[in-house]
Amino acid sequence: MSTKNSKNDVSVNSILQQNQVELAQMQEKLIRAERLAAIGELASGVSHELRNPLNVIRNCVYLLNIAISEKDEAGAVEALKTLDKQVDVANKIVTDLLDFTRIKQPMQTIVELPKLIDESLTWVTIPERVKLNVNLNDPMKLLKTDPEQMTRVFTNLIANAVQAMNGKGGDLSINTNADENYVSIVISDTGCGIPEENIAKIFEPLFTTKPKGIGLGLAIAKRLVEENGGKIEVTSQVDKGSTFTVRLPLEQRS
Questions:
Q1: Count of Cβ atoms closer than 10 Å to residue 97 Cβ
Q2: Which residue in 50, 70, 80, 185 has its CB near the most CB atoms, within 10 A?
Q3: What's the rounded Cα separation, in Å, for the pair 161 and 188?
Q4: With b meaning 16 or more CB within 10 Å and e meaning fewer, what string describes 100-139?
Q5: 191-220 b/e with 16+ CB inside 10 Å = b?
Q6: Contact 137/177 with Cβ under 8 angstroms?
Q7: pLDDT tens for residues 135-166?
Q8: Residue 1: CB atoms within 10 Å
Q9: Does residue 253 surpass a pLDDT of 60?
Q10: How far apart are CA 24 and CA 49, in angstroms?
Q11: Contact between 88 and 114 (Cβ < 8 Å)
């Protein structure tokens, strides 16, 4: 009986081991399939967005050749300006992709919040029809963060707020407040707002409702904020506007 039982035990163990191997192989195949699907989605988004500026560049080259042959200096200058803009568009797409795939470890230093906000505002053109309101409560509070990374986050959020107003004008507000451990930077606009069904998706890579872009800006912003020990949240109402709140840790003084 004992010999029979031991054979049965060996048989059961063999079946269990085989099942475990098969399960591991299935999991590996699923992970590989998910990665390939993500790569395919990313490649599709990047190729679609890059095709737009490339087509414009091709048209500009054609117009530039005509302008040169006809000695049309004004036409040549205009074509060159458009070329320059479209190169910037293509470069941003590639930069966003690279930034998302290889975000560097933050180089945290002690930063003054007003300087961080001012630096971010210099990178965004605020239209005349947009009223900017900046109210920094506790402006002397010091952050411990990577200033370059946070400047990119705030620049992205401010630019998004301007775009959300679709050239119609409105209010763009930047407010801050602090507690014992964190400072909150609140960026609000009176733009088009975000539909409720999209709120949970806007920080996901490749999700975008814009006619241009591959949906990496907010995904990068979220990763940068979290890498610096913070959090980012959003509330929004369609046709009323959106509010993004970034919470970052304060410098802890002994």
A1: 18
A2: 185
A3: 7
A4: beeeeebebeebebeebbebbbeebeeeeebeeeeebeee
A5: bbbbeeeeeeebbebbbbeeeebbbbbbbb
A6: yes
A7: 988 767 788 899 999 999 999 999 999 989 88
A8: 5
A9: no
A10: 38
A11: no
- Report long-range pairs for 218-222 (Cβ below 8 Å, ≥24 apart): 218/156, 218/160, 219/100, 220/96, 220/99, 220/100, 220/103, 220/152, 220/156, 221/152, 221/153, 221/156, 221/157
Q: Tens digit of pLDDT for each residue in 82-120?
A: 888 888 878 777 777 776 767 778 898 998 889 999 999
Confidence of residue 254 (pLDDT cuts 50, 70, 90): very low
> What secondary structure letter does DSSP report for 130?
E
Report how far residue 3's alpha carbon sits from residue 169's, in angstroms, rounded to the nearest whole number.
86
DSSP, collapsed to helix, strand or coil, labels residue 169 as: coil
Architecture of the 11-101 domain: Orthogonal Bundle (1.10)
* Whether this model's pTM surpasses 0.70: no
- DSSP strand E in 130-240: where? 130-136, 142-145, 170-178, 182-189, 231-237
Q: Are 160 and 120 in contact (CB under 8 A)?
A: no
Q: Would you say how long the chain is, in residues?
A: 254
Q: State residue 176 phi and psi, 5-degree precision.
A: -135, 150
Q: Which of 113, 106, 115, 143 is nearest to 249 (CA)?
A: 143
Please give the C-alpha separations between residue 174 and each of 31, 93, 110, 149, 232, in angstroms, as whole numbers: 42, 27, 21, 18, 15
Question: Domain locations in the chain?
Answer: 11-101, 109-249
The CATH T-level fold of domain 109-249 is Heat Shock Protein 90 (3.30.565)
Tokens 């063999």 belong to 14
